[in-house]
Known about the structure:
Elements: H1 2-24, E1 33-39, E2 47-53, H2 54-80
Antiparallel strand pairs: 1-2
Amino acid sequence: MLFSTALLTLAMMADAATTTALAAVPVNPLDKVICRRILETGSLVKGKRVCLTRREWALASEKGRERAEEMQTLIATERGN
């Protein structure tokens, strides 16, 4: 009985130490995970859930803007010829 009480006490102390250590670590808001539901084109129900960090969502958005700009430039260039 004394042994199990000692084990329980050690487990509780370890859990408290872990909680304190996690609370002390500063969390970067860019590392927060955000999940979004991406719908399949032409469907109102089919889709998938995509989870990325804020940083990854921002990067994906920037790349999308760059691709759109490249396509517009290409179309404008082809029309000009």
